[in-house]
Design brief:
mainly alpha; 76% helix; elongated
Length: 107
Amino acid sequence: MVWIIGLILAVCGAVMTARATAELARINNGRALPVAWGEFAVRPTPEVRRTRITAAVVSVVGAWTVAGALWNAENAAWMIALAFGILAAATYLPRLLVTMQHNREVE
């Protein structure tokens, strides 16, 4: 049952990441956002930065909770892969989707 809480936290982190990236896209209206790394044309506001950091922390706690609740020493590699998969899905996937949509509208 604890793993459900972890998934809820990961989803909350993903939503927060998507909202922060959407706000960042709004701030950088008319300019392309970096997909993987690089600098933004207009720097993120302190609120956006705090939201992104909080989303990352919530996602890490969620992934850690799921991996800890489902931990099985015989399948440790699968549990580590599951935790990293949840973490990547919660932190990078929403950011990538919002950025690609924004950049598609800019070009």
